[in-house]
Prior knowledge:
Layout: E1 5-9, H1 18-32, E2 36-40, H2 46-50, H3 54-57, H4 63-70, E3 79-82, E4 85-88, H5 94-103, H6 110-119, E5 126-130, H7 137-146, E6 148-153, H8 159-174, E7 181-190, H9 199-209, H10 225-233, E8 243-244, H11 247-255, H12 259-262, H13 269-281
Parallel strand pairs: 1-5, 1-6, 2-4, 2-5, 6-7, 7-8
Antiparallel strand pairs: 3-4
Amino acid sequence: MQEPRAVSVGILKGGFAKTTTALNLGRELAHRNDRALVVDLDDNGHMTLNLGFEDAYANAENHAETVLLENGDPREHVVNVAGGLDLFPAHEDLESVQSALKEATMGTTRLKRELVEPLLGDEYDYVVVDCPANRGKLNDNAMYATGNLVIPLRPENGYETGLSNTLDRLVSQAREYFELDILAIVPSDLRNRIDQATRDRALLREITTRDAIDHLVPNFAYLSADDWAAIESGDYEGELPGIRYRSAIDDAHDAGEPLRDFAPECDQLGAYDELAAIVERGEVVR
């Protein structure tokens, strides 16, 4: 087994499969290893609510505040999702936690010191943080605590802005203060042809031909120069790249389950498995 590792899943734009990616990445890490923890740090609580933990989200005790600001034990607030995957749930008042972190001593270090370091390696082999889609102390905490980032993308209007803002306003600025590695850029929910002028094609073209980031695209989504030449000539015979749209992924979300537990026969599990392997190794390997 590789060294224990923490990773954030984040992009500065909502609706880009961040929570779906974080949940299924965490589940595959738990499946491949012994245990994994996913931390819902998104103030909208989509993961926590969708998995059915409404009571934790709306609890009178703000467990995020208890742990990050009052030195509480995070183990007391963890719940099981499926198999070896556990969840540290979001709370409906994460906004007040973010405000308090601005004033707290070493406020950017709290998630690492109070949750990740006590649990990573001893309790869990891997920790995955589902980040908020906006800048702020919660996002800063996630980046600092994990030192690793997976960026999800969807072929929707604004993906260029979401990617650029994440690279320029989040990653570059964080790197002025601490080490932060991008482990993967993951295109999801692709469903259209790539031999015509579709958003799928434009997104894939952007990330697989841009020198600064093409090495971060997983193999299940990567297209080489030869592949693009074959696409242009009509001779491409490879698999359609990216995490493809499947109704099973949406249905698993509606059922409040990871994909592996809802539809273990789904052909897109292989993509999440490769993503888990990337996190284990700490890089994409061609």
